[in-house]
Design brief:
This protein is of the alpha+beta class. The chain is built from 13 helices and 17 strands. It has helices spanning 42-50, 75-78, 88-94, 105-122, 148-165, 179-187, 202-206, 219-227, 233-237, 241-248, 250-260, 290-310, 343-355; strands at residues 34-39, 59-62, 70-73, 99-101, 126-130, 133-137, 171-176, 194-196, 276-287, 315-324, 329-340, 363-373, 405-409, 412-416, 423-425, 431-435, 446-450. α4 packs antiparallel against α5, α10 packs across α11 and α12 runs antiparallel to α13. The longest helix is centred in the middle third of the chain and has 21 residues, at 290-310. The structure holds a DNA duplex.
Length: 468
Amino acid sequence: MHNPSPRATGPTPGTSQPVDDRGYVALVRAQASVLHLDLDAFFAAVEQRDKPSLRGKPVVVGGVGGRGVVATASYEARQYGVRSAMSTREARSRCPHAAFLGGRFPAYREASAAVMGLLRSVSPLVEPLSLDEAFVDLARADLPDLELTTVTAFAEELRQRVHEVTHGLTASVGLGTSKFIAKVASELDKPDGLTVVPPGTERDLLRPMAVSVIPGVGPATDERLRRAGLRTVADLEAVDLDELVRLVGKAHGSGLWHLARALDDRPVVSEREAKSVSVEGTYETDLTDRRLMEGLLTRQAGEVAARLRKHGLSGRTISIKVRLHDFTTLSRSSTLSSPTDATATIARLARALLADLDTSGGVRLLGVGVSGLADWIQDDLFGESDPGAPADDDLPMIEAPTSRRTTWAPGMDVVHAAMGRGWVWGSGRGVVTVRFETAQTPPGPVRSYPIDDPDLAPWRLPLPEHDA
DNA sequence: TCTGGGGTCCTAGGACCC
DNA sequence: TCTGGGGTCCTAGGACCC
């Protein structure tokens, strides 16, 4: 849990603030200035909005194939027990007369963008959690104050404006002193409702609730806690930190300890950098043909690479995911010495990783991912302390770069600089990865630079196209 | 023919380095 | 007779979220 509070050496005697065993005191806002907004039955609602004949009827959006699952069920379908993540097969048996739709993501993205745009017009601090959910920090909104009456009226108006900009979708909203409380609150009056949790009432609200209201408590943790006799948040509150850590691990235990006391100082964060990009697919029938699997991995590698390039990213770790016929899920990964966004590199590695796996029983899912994405501002990957490295001032000037490119090793496509004095091997668009090696100097460290960094103007290298 | 797809975060063990 | 210890990186798997 994020916790900027000052550190003490041990529990602070005589304070009323709860303190964990390392002496951290968690702070909570004094006002209900965190807003959580959740669009109701989002995908299904968009379908009903766009197709009037579906209004008032059960609609199920999700995978329509033999191995599909439900993404969203309209409230009419929920009356028949259809739920998110249920197999479509089961949903069909529970509600055969529902409309089963595969989903129209461009339409969902458009509606989502309208809502997120509205939220951002209200506060610069908006944190989307998915297409249909976001936190908004009202402490950064243009409000006269953060009194309950003020934020309540504001939230009601916001819900009305969501209805307008989406041409008829409804949203449920929660307001509270933290992300956790706001999120719990938005669940309490669904659909099309607003719940405000007044500061100071959080713990009374939580105590009777099941432990599963706490984000991060899924089926596995729920079961562990249940076996320890912990069913409600009140039960959790009565257990000390050591015991929780013993039960569910360090990070999780500490999180539970704090959240059970409504201690949550996680900030609303508007810009989060992607950490990985992946593509996977489940096939209607299990795959047994290795050549076919290699072909599918190659195609997925191309999709991943295209998405990396589209966002100006590249990454060093290539992973594959393989789900066997019996649902056993395997992953294998390999890390390159420099980042790539090249289809050929990702595909080659993905196929090599598959080669080590026994897939003779059949494969239901294949996937390819890239992680370890380059963060070029902070990342000086290979440090300054490389002894054989030429000093920056000695680095050769490369001004009119790059003509020929040859594959040297996986992940390293060597580009011969036109000036001829150094090696440049590059991968990411918008980034150049350079290793300097001249007649006068031994191979230097690998360095990566953003192409647009003005301080590196001499290195402004138009990279060759990859995988044309 | 039970069990999607795209993510995030955590844990644990081993390698490696100082 | 005793064989450190901490930090970081990498890999594999698992839980969880929407």
